[in-house]
Specification:
By secondary structure, the protein is of the alpha/beta class. Helices cover 34% and strands 21% of the residues. The chain has seven helices and five strands. It has helices spanning 54-60, 64-67, 73-80, 94-107, 120-125, 138-145, 155-162; strands spanning 9-16, 24-33, 36-44, 88-91, 116-119. It has a five-stranded mixed β-sheet with strand order 3-2-1-4-5, with helices on both faces. The protein starts with 8 loop residues before the first strand and ends with a helix.
């Protein structure tokens, strides 16, 4: 696979309906080319059985009513797939987002694409001044670097802040 330079990438963020990784209920995608945001997409996703835990609703505010008429993941995946072609993927706490992607693709028996990803926790950590104490959470990093984060735990806002 041939990749573009590091100044071009796609930032992704998932929200889940429950603690199960296959319960994606929202995804935000932000495409960056030459260090400029060129496109953004946000999709609500109906999770299996449209079931939510109260804890997850408290985190992101998405409810079963919000996703009642939303597409299931296979239809959303068809819209998302182009974002994974010939680029790098970046996520804040990438272990979580990549686990959600893999588990949801597995749940629906969909193929996992070939791509490289980076974690913005590690990348941003390289830019923190020695001696500064900064947490690993997205909102803490955004505050430190003066990056706008208008609605934390909205998948698109989080993906934009990560980008």
């Amino acid at each position: 696979m041939e990749f573009v330079k590091y100044s071009s990438f796609v930032s992704i963020d998932f929200e889940t309906a429950t603690s199960a990784y296959f319960s994606a209920c929202a995804v935000g995608l932000v495409k960056v080319e030459k260090n400029q945001i060129v496109s953004e997409d946000y999709f609500l996703i109906q999770p299996p059985d449209n079931f939510y835990s109260e804890k997850n609703i408290e985190i992101h505010g998405i409810t079963p009513q919000d996703t009642l008429n939303s597409d299931f993941f296979p239809a959303v995946w068809e819209k998302m797939k182009p974002y994974f072609e010939n680029t790098y993927i970046v996520a804040h706490n990438a272990n979580f987002d990549m686990s959600v992607l893999k588990a949801t693709l597995d749940y629906y028996n969909l193929s996992i694409p070939d791509f490289l990803y980076f974690d913005s926790i590690s990348i941003s950590g390289l830019c923190i001044k020695d001696g500064d104490s900064v947490g690993r959470k997205l909102d803490e990093r955004c505050k430190y670097f003066n990056i706008p984060l208008s609605e934390h735990h909205n998948a698109l806002c989080d993906a934009r802040a990560c980008a």
